[in-house]
TrEMBL record:
Residues 191-222 are annotated as: Disordered. It comes from the Eukaryota. This is Uncharacterized protein. Residues 199-218 have a biased composition (Acidic residues). InterPro entries: Alpha/Gamma-adaptin-bd_p34 (IPR019341).
């Protein structure tokens, strides 16, 4: 199994992990399943964005089992975790440090707490501030916001911000999974130069022949600039987590968007 695994846990007895998975995939539970170890069943999910596409596997973890019992084969592929909880049950706050510790120890970069809707006051349940206590490793998304939150959601959608299940899907799209297949820019798309026949190809062949055996200083300069660009890119990748560990999810997503655009421009400069 070489696809990233996203573990789905439910701390709410009325909601199964498969219910959460179904809302994201929008497919019957029997479609696109994957046989995992120890009798567990995975649910394949295809992600396609402007910059990349990939497949991940959702793995529902039974509520009665401890995370420490997770099979080693799945732990090795684990890149994300979704934890559903009942925001009206304040006892969940006692388990929150345990979940945060697991995310840190397993080196999971994509961790999100999910609930129907957070409460306004502590006497009603878990508030947004309480749920965000471990925001450096676990962000929070409300899947069914209502009331005043709905009005805020509408405003966010006008600004291009998703909410509810769409916000979760957007978060998954914005994360760079380990097995991504990056989309390459095509300079002069298929629609450009239509009707020119083989002329561009002949011109390229002619230029290649004329320049054979010659070292063009301009090419050397361009290659050097590209190497420096990739070195800068790799440095940003290595520093991403240390630099953003204390940021909120929206701040990390904004930074990741800038990073993706830089990468897109870098590979698009070729040819």
């Amino acid at each position: 199994m070489d696809k990233p695994v996203v573990l789905v846990v439910s701390a709410d007895a009325t909601v199964k992990p498969e219910d959460v998975i179904g809302r994201v995939r929008k497919l019957p539970a029997t479609d696109a399943t994957v046989a995992l170890t120890d009798g567990l069943t995975g649910h394949s999910y295809h992600i396609r964005t402007k910059y990349y596409e990939t497949d991940v596997v959702f793995c529902g973890w039974p509520g009665g089992k401890e995370l420490g019992e997770l099979p080693e084969t799945i732990l090795k592929q684990l890149e994300g975790i979704l934890i559903y909880f009942d925001a009206r049950d304040r006892d969940f706050l006692k388990r929150l440090p345990e979940y945060a510790a697991f995310v840190t120890e397993a080196d999971i970069e994509f961790g999100i707490l999910l609930c129907a809707e957070l409460q306004e006051e502590p006497d009603q349940g878990i508030t947004y501030r309480e749920a965000k206590k471990f925001c450096n490793v676990l962000d929070v998304i409300e899947l069914d916001p209502s009331g005043e939150t709905t009005a805020a959601t509408a405003a966010d959608e006008d600004d291009g911000e998703a909410a509810g299940v769409d916000e979760l899907i957007q978060a998954m799209n914005n994360f760079i999974w380990s097995n991504v297949d990056m989309h390459r820019k095509v300079v002069g798309g298929a629609g450009e130069g239509a009707g020119c026949g083989a002329e561009p190809e002949e011109k390229e062949e002619e230029e290649t022949t004329e320049g054979a055996g010659e070292e063009d200083p301009e090419d050397e300069r361009r290659i050097e600039e590209e190497l420096m660009g990739f070195e800068k890119l790799l440095t940003q990748v290595m520093q991403f987590r240390p630099n953003t560990s204390s940021w909120t999810r929206n701040e990390r997503l904004a930074y990741a968007q800038e990073f993706a655009e830089f990468f897109d421009e870098l590979i698009g400069e070729e040819d």
